[in-house]
Design a protein that fits this description.
The protein is built from twelve helices and eleven strands. The chain has 352 residues and is α+β, with helices and mostly antiparallel strands. The chain folds into two domains: 165 residues, Up-down Bundle (AhpD-like), CATH 1.20.1290.10; 119 residues, Sandwich (Jelly Rolls), CATH 2.60.120.10. The strands form three sheets. It has a six-stranded antiparallel β-sheet with strand order 1-2-3-10-5-8. The chain has a three-stranded antiparallel β-sheet with strand order 7-6-9, with no helix packed on it. It has a two-stranded antiparallel ribbon with strand order 4-11. Strand 6 and strand 7 form a beta hairpin. It is elongated and about 75 Å long. It starts with a helix and ends in a 6-residue tail after the last helix.
Length: 352
Amino acid sequence: MRTTILSLASFALLALGSAARAQQADTLNTRQQHIVTIAAATALGDIGNLKTSLVRGLDGGMTVNEIKELLVHAYAYCGFPRSLRALQTFMDVLDDRKAQGITDTAGREVSPVDDPRDKYTRGAELLEKLSGTPKDAPKTGYAAFAPIIEQYLKEHLFCDIFERDLLTWQERELATVSILTALGEGVEPMLKSHAAISLRQGITEGALCQMTKIVNGLKNGDPFARGMLMRDNPNFTDKAWLQGYVAPEDGFDCSVSSVTFAPGCRNSWHSHRGGQILLCTSGKGYYQEKGQPIRLLLPGDVVKIAPDVIHWHGAAPDSKFTHIAIGTQTDKGGVTWMEPVTDEEYSGFEGE
């Protein structure tokens, strides 16, 4: 719990000094979520979740070389033992998939660097571009106390590693803050520093907060953390949290997300042009189609909603409720929202 508070507090402090942004929180895309879970599971040494994350990354379009690069990058922030163990795990995953007849895309190699300047100069320049801090600024703190570590930092971390082009600077920073969040207490100054660099590289505050939720979900044994609070959404009567996994633009003609409703929260009447499937995972919920009685939903229940069927769903009055929502045939169109579900309609459940 303290780690979560510290991480979010760091981001909040940074947000106070940033330019005004859109009110709706930005979220991580699917590739970024794969980077977060792979990096965090590596730092935690969580082999089970690491295997799952590696498979999802490969199935989601990451190449073998991109994932190898991510696992190599991790060593600079969580050490050789974690990085090497993650690479060994990745080898096992690839072998298992090959045995199943799955051929994964290797992808391109890192481009060679053609820069005759010394590594310290190149690393200092790259760090200046990343952070905005002038490379000739006076050395303070650890750089003044132990100059050799500052030399290693510039020559190796920011030259040898960040200079490699297979992952973008933004992706490397996202991996870094995921690793530092996973490590927890004791790295708060570094986490705050890299969160600031992430913002500078175009990762939004909302995306950083979503990253924190995902990482802490892994730490707490919940790989499907409840996600981002949807604020001021007129189609929900109370608090609801959304975690996106697959978006229509990912090319699968579907959307997949987890939605958690606070007790008593429900959404408005609505329909889906291509239909929807609900996989109920926890708590107690309600589901109703227009003209039909309310149905009680419990973990393990599956609801198949045909295209253009008007319905609503949400939590029972005395329980949170979570389901995986799968939007099907998204090429036909999205959601059509209608009027809110009245208190009288919501209280019409006739009993278990």
